Amino acid sequence: MPKLTYNEKSFLLDGEETLLLSAAMHYFRTVPEYWEDRLIKLRECGFNTVETYVAWNLHEPEEGQFVFEGIADIERFIQTAEKVGLHVIVRPGPYICAEWEFGGFPYWLMTVPNIKLRCYNEAYLDKVEAYFDQLFKRLQPHLSSNGGPIIALQIENEYGSFGNDQKYLQYMRDSVKKRVGDDLLFTSDGPLPSMLNGGMIENVLETVNFGSRTKEAFEQLKKFQPNGPLMCMEFWHGWFDHWGEEHHTRSSESVVETLEEMLERNGSVNFYMAHGGTNFGFYNGANHNEEIYQPTITSYDYDGLLTESGDVTEKFYAVRKTFEKYVELPEMKLPAPSSKKQYGEVQLTERVALLDSLDQLSSPQQSQAPLTMEEYGQGYGFIVYETVIKGAYGKQILTVQDVHDRGQVYLNGEYVGLVDRISGESRLEVDITEEETTLQIIVENMGRINYGPFLVDFKGITEGVRMNNQFLFDWTVYPLPLKEVSHLRFTNAETKENHPYFHRGTLTVDEVTDTFIDMSKWTKGVVFVNGHNLGRYWEIGPQQTLYVPAPFLNEGENEIIILELHKHKQAVNFVDTPVLG
Q: Which stretches make up the Beta-galactosidase galactose-binding domain (predicted)?
């Protein structure tokens, strides 16, 4: 495969000037059965390269337990890109942001003594090295220097937006370089002087990330790097959504205008995201703007060139037409669109209360004070804290001090209210009238922060629980990662509002195809199809449907389980069109 180098004006593939026209697509957000379809579509749009981040938390979910199969089979993804004729850019982190849980870091890093992330800290670097040993062992055969399609690799990620530790960046450069030899290495940062000063590394190519104001961004890059080519490593032609926001869109006209400004200057470009995909399971990230915690929705559609379910868009055709002005492209030959089916209504005839199922879902742990989710060895999902208050306290203010992220509170089995990080509401007025009162708090981890200064984001109850000023001790805790829900014992029990219940029904399929589950009549929760965690839904939107790729379904009977936290319904609909906003 050709080797990528550069001069002050251009990238060179085996010495020949070339524009890198790259499309961002994350293997971990699309089921493997669809990788080839999406990659072919990106090639037919005119791209010659695909770029992907690498999600550490997917590959090492628990320390020392490495996963490189299924949706985590990065080698298969790279080989598929090569098969369809695309070069590959890899951004291995260890930090990736990406609106992905904890910016790609595995949760267990937060339990390592004396660790400090993203700086020259031995405890942190030891863990990075152990992970890189496993990752690069799989990347090395696919490097261009070994005849593979990987033409460039990124060092860290937008580091100038976080820190200025040059010793750390140089260490990361050398750590990757010793594993890849002389393959091209680069960094990417926002185009502000502070970001470029903080993120650039000696002897490593710098690129910039932006969505508009091309002239200013490229001028700033040239000021800091006069001897390198121009490249926008993240062209934000769309955007992601937080819960409660409008769905973000950007017009084709605006995208093409900015793209032309880059191409006219011989600037290479990576479309972020050309195909966004889905934050399946509990892998969505969150932001924090110093005032409010903002969890990201399940869909990572991003208003990309391909939709979440892989369909081409008007923007796709506009970008292809623009590319044709600057590079010679063969006739476009798109794969057939994937079929979508409206399977209709499924009755949910069985149900069981979450609080009645703790022994089926969890092994209880004891602690004097309520600890964080991480301290109980849990990464994701929900957690239930339980204690007994002895004595008739009377009217009290119950405070759940620093809940991360959303807690439903029960006294002797009765719902008393919500404590919520988003609203900042942590106090409830209660009346403790019995000599013994059981207090239960169900806390949902809604996604760790993936960007900015609040990256270390412990989950659960992070400080304590008190009645007025008296802290409560002696807790029984039930971690609920919900990796497995097949052991639940369903009944026909009646439901109670604001009490979480699992609901189960059967979808019978004669023809397996993509579909969407319409959650617009439900309130908040999680959906499982044949054991696959589709992700979260929430009535505040903008997302009202969850994508169900055909590989999650079987011909015949399919088990549908919905964990609803508040208001319960008897049925759910499968539709053929997504609703985002």
A: 500-558
